[in-house]
Write a structure and sequence with these properties.
Elements: H1 3-27, H2 31-69
Length: 70
């Protein structure tokens, strides 16, 4: 799997998770759901975004290395 495909899958999975969480919150609203959102889901989003940025930069580095080695 290429880095760009992996990045797209990661970002897509986060998007799907957040959409499903929004639907879940309509049915599940108690202290445990709020704890899950605050302690797991909210911190997850910036971490995934940072990982996606790092993957993109790594893809650029790999592409440059390939060009230089040809």
């Amino acid at each position: 799997m290429s880095l760009s495909v992996g990045r797209a899958k990661l970002v897509g999975a986060l998007r799907d998770l957040m959409l499903r969480w929004e639907k879940t919150k309509m049915e599940w609203d108690d202290p445990m759901s709020r704890h899950l959102e605050a302690s797991v889901l909210e911190p997850l989003e910036p971490k995934v975004r940072a990982a996606a940025t790092a993957i993109e930069k790594m893809g650029e580095i790999v592409a440059r290395a390939r060009r230089e080695c040809q």
